[in-house]
Amino acid sequence: MKGLYVHIPFCQYICHYCDFVKRVPKNKDMIDEYLLALKKEIMSYKDHFKTIETIYIGGGTPSMLDLDQLTMLFEMLKDINPLEYTIEVNPESYTHDKGLLFKRYGINRVSLGVQTFNQDLLHYLNRGHTNEHVFHVVDDLKRLEIPYISIDLIYAIPGQTISDLEHDLEQIKKLDITHVSCYTLILEEKTYFYHQYLRGNFKEVNQDLEATMYELVTKSLKAQGFEHYEISNYAKHKHYSKHNMIYWSLGEYIGVGLGAHGFIDGYRTYNERALAKYLVNPLKEKTLQTHNDLLQDDLIFGLRKIEGVHIQSIEEKYHLDLFHTYDKLKEKMDLGLLEIKDGYLRLTDKGLLLGNQVFMVFI
Ligand code: SF4
Hints:
It is a single chain. With 363 residues, this protein is α/β, with parallel strands linked by helices. It folds into two domains: 2-246, TIM Barrel; 308-363, no CATH class. 41% of the residues lie in helices and 21% in strands. It has helices at 28-43, 67-76, 96-104, 119-125, 131-143, 162-175, 192-198, 207-223, 242-248, 275-280, 291-304, 311-318, 322-325, 328-334, 349-353, 355-359; strands at residues 2-8, 54-59, 84-89, 109-115, 148-155, 179-184, 227-230, 233-235, 252-256, 261-264, 267-271, 283-288, 309-310, 338-341, 344-347. The chain has a nine-stranded mixed β-sheet, with helices on both faces. A hairpin with a 2-residue loop joins strand 14 and strand 15. Helix 1 (28-43) runs parallel beside helix 2 and helix 6 runs parallel beside helix 8 (207-223). 36% of the residues are buried. Iron/sulfur cluster (SF4) binds next to loops.
């Protein structure tokens, strides 16, 4: 499979935890100018259009574009016929007319930035929506027969209790959607929270509570009929994110837009992160991946999947003996972080919590 990632780096406000490539636009012209540059970049990949099977429009906040801008964006992509076509939506910037446009251009998957259903915590994160927005958007998307709806949830937020998280998980049940991505709040540099942390005003959730929350999320979503298929992702009826599966399976994808990266024809590509530079020339650098780079990525990304990596396939692809090349793997198995099942090497429940300790083996 081959994917296309399209980055829209504009947001109405900046969330306190966010380290994505994004900015609040000065005005409408700034977005229009960006879209023109984006169109040029997308057209430079025209020869790949026929082989692209997933499109993912992410951000930033793609749904903050107005109807004309969204139409312009979708027109750029209309010669591609993907199996899966996703757009990220923030609940407060969605309108029924935007939903109609999604439908008209064949978007079949919406990823909704919810994060939590606790209004105080939303405020703490500096999010701009309410629970009413979320239920309204999901209802409307269902009425429009957009078949695949995913929400993003964040847990281990300072001040969040187990019962807050239980409440969030109950709301997910009520939404009756196909997919959930669930991440811990990570303290990233250059964020508002990081500055608070440096001043002693931000205290990370302790690891025991974080682990308890992870177990609660997994147990509760499984009870709701979700399959845990990747460290942080859960799907009903095998409605995995096909686009993200490309990342985790070392498939090819093109990345366009500010700060986007891709993996195509054996090269990792990295776009400019500064808007002024991007508008002149989007691509910052591309690096040919060595045998070792590919092996490392195959193992680290592959182990993020709950099924793990197929040992024989990896050994044949890279002409090696996995346990001979990485003698520390045995140690990780003895620690109960890894196991072998049906020919796959995979993280155990304990390993899912401590994945980084395993990934270090390959670096
Ligand atoms: S989390 Fe999303 S909406 Fe919030 S600032 Fe980052 S990109 Fe924008």
